[in-house]
UniProtKB/TrEMBL annotation:
<dbReference type="InterPro" id="IPR041205">
    <property type="entry name" value="ScsC_N"/>
</dbReference>
<dbReference type="InterPro" id="IPR036249">
    <property type="entry name" value="Thioredoxin-like_sf"/>
</dbReference>
<dbReference type="InterPro" id="IPR013766">
    <property type="entry name" value="Thioredoxin_domain"/>
</dbReference>
<dbReference type="GO" id="GO:0016491">
    <property type="term" value="F:oxidoreductase activity"/>
</dbReference>
<keyword id="KW-0560">Oxidoreductase</keyword>
<keyword id="KW-0732">Signal</keyword>
<feature type="signal peptide">
    <location>
        <begin position="1"/>
        <end position="26"/>
    </location>
</feature>
<keyword id="KW-1015">Disulfide bond</keyword>
<dbReference type="InterPro" id="IPR001853">
    <property type="entry name" value="DSBA-like_thioredoxin_dom"/>
</dbReference>
<dbReference type="Pfam" id="PF01323">
    <property type="entry name" value="DSBA"/>
</dbReference>
<protein>
    <submittedName>
        <fullName>Protein-disulfide isomerase</fullName>
    </submittedName>
</protein>
<keyword id="KW-0676">Redox-active center</keyword>
<dbReference type="GO" id="GO:0016853">
    <property type="term" value="F:isomerase activity"/>
</dbReference>
<keyword id="KW-0413">Isomerase</keyword>
<feature type="domain" description="Thioredoxin">
    <location>
        <begin position="74"/>
        <end position="250"/>
    </location>
</feature>
<dbReference type="Pfam" id="PF18312">
    <property type="entry name" value="ScsC_N"/>
</dbReference>
Length: 256
């Protein structure tokens, strides 16, 4: 929250304190009254600087709460493409009572670091559904890898895609089309079909859908997780994710 808004808030408080002596509408203030009000605000803030700090903190909290409420509305309004899109990879229990959606990039160092945490969550929680949203924001190589991955999903439904995903995300160094194709070949995929599907309308539609979701949710980095109606930003570690998933099982929120 900026200083101008906080000063406006302080001015409103000061105006309330002088309301018995001053008009109710700003356009009714005389020059003398405006000068008096300005002097009062100045003297009050100098004598009570903590008021300005409290006002800024209150306005910051209000802004954050408002933004979070709006984000939750967006999550609720985008439930279809977010949780059940035909373009996404779903791992774990497709009917689980908690859904963890991950926006990731195959070249994201922190996504690579979070992979063991996601794998352990899937192993430990039979009621967890994990949705993978390829969000290629780290350059052309990421986009090409995402296209190969999307095409590979056509040949690797459900949990079978997990082998491709983990192998490519675990790769060292930059990842692009060549690296993704090598993983697909190692897994025995039909390479002619893969090449054809990479440029299909469905692959493009899936990537476009993820970009639109990220924009609507104001997601601009990876990894970002959606749990219930809440966002969890960054590789926060297994314990934090596990606690939040447990809460979603109980009440649908990351904190009950």
């Amino acid at each position: 929250m900026n200083l101008t808004a906080a000063l406006g808030f302080a001015a409103a408080l000061a105006g309330a304190a002088l309301s018995t002596a001053l008009p109710a509408r700003a356009d009714e203030f005389s020059p003398a009254q405006k000068q008096e009000l300005g002097a009062f605000i100045h003297d009050y803030l100098v004598a009570n600087p903590e008021v300005l700090k409290e006002a800024i903190e209150a306005l910051d909290k209000h802004d954050k709460d408002t933004a979070e409420a709006e984000r939750q509305k967006v999550v609720a309004g985008q439930a279809g493409p977010l949780f059940t899109s035909k373009y996404q990879a779903t791992i774990g229990n497709p009917n689980g009572s908690a859904t963890l959606v991950e926006f990731f990039d195959y070249n994201c160092h922190y996504c690579k670091g979070a992979l063991p945490d996601i794998a352990k969550l899937i192993k430990d929680d039979p009621n967890l559904k994990v949705v993978l949203k390829d969000f290629p924001v780290l350059g052309p190589g990421s986009v090409e890898a995402a296209k190969v991955a999307a095409a590979a999903r056509n040949q690797l439904p459900g949990d079978k895609f997990w082998a491709f995903h983990t192998k490519l995300l675990s790769a060292r160094g930059p990842v692009g089309k060549a690296e993704a194709m090598a993983v697909a070949k190692d897994l025995g995929l039909d390479m002619d079909k893969l090449n054809k599907d990479m440029d299909s309308a469905d692959v493009k539609a899936g990537l476009d859908e993820t970009m639109q979701l990220a924009d609507a949710l104001q997601i601009n980095g990876t990894p970002t997780f959606v749990l219930g109606q809440d966002l969890v930003v960054g590789a926060v570690g297994y314990d934090q994710l596990k606690n939040k998933v447990d809460s979603v099982h109980k009440c649908g929120r990351v904190a009950c």
